Amino acid sequence: xxxxxxxxxxxxxxxxxxxxxxxxxxxxxxxxxxxxxxxxxxxxxxxxxxxxxxxxxxxxxxxxxxxxxxxxxxxxxxxxxxxxxxxxxxxxxxxxxxxxxxxxxxxxxxxxxxxxxxxxxxxxxxxxxxxxxxxxxxxxxxxxxxxxxxxxxxxxxxxxxxxxxxxxxxxxxxxxxxxxxxxxxxxxxxxxxxxxxxxxxxxxxxxxxxxxxxxxxxxxxxxxxxxxxxxxxxxxxxxxxxxxxxxxxxxxxxxxxxxxxxxxxxxxxxxxxxxxxxxxxxxxxxxxxxxxxxxxxxxxxxxxxxxxxxxxxxxxxxxxxxxxxxxx
Length: 328
Hints:
By secondary structure, this protein is mostly helical. The chain contains 20 helices and no strands. The radius of gyration is 23 Å and the shape is elongated.
């Protein structure tokens, strides 16, 4: 018996409460973040990675010049160069917290978390900087030392003024440990202190989805959308919630906005095709699903499921038949 897309989608959400479970994130059109990517975002406000440093006039100090170049290399995704420059500064001055922080980032970007811990621990002790502490916690977790990471994040999220990326990292690590309710509390606390931080709003909405609390997820996302109407992740998550609620026309409208921002978002394309099928626009929906699979064999399974699950879709007895249909 064919299942409606709504019921299947709800079951898929219930399978995992993990905020970062690839199935949940990809279904919403949001690519799961790798730890090192999340770390770079957490450190984006660090003063030594700010563009204002490199634009300051009259800097003659060679260490400062090297750090500017190291920070630029990190932004340009050249972590080996950043490592070399930061290590040289740190060798000349072991107390240079900025050099230690950049070195830690460079090592993390090369998946060398174990080596990054020592310089980051020294930098965190000397600076008391919440961004450095957040990076240290992410590094500890990547190295398999989760309890130490969580303890560091408990301390960092207790700091005032609050540092929002620490709340997001804390919640993410708790969710990955299966402690989803605790993760929600962390994000709720963070939003009480910083109510307009979009990253926290997106994170908590995905956790709410993991608990099938779609009304709360939608409320948070609508607020986030008011503040950040052009954010792809906000729109993608809101479109997914709307699709799960069976509001296919509204979801299709939101997916059009998602695709206007990122035309190559194949997950959004597939979900948009589902919306069209459920709205009875069969030819248009099938055309979208066909375009989703062109040159992307990894999307074939998703397209097959969408066609079979939709109340206005198609059912094929042989895989070769549906493959031929999608390629036609």
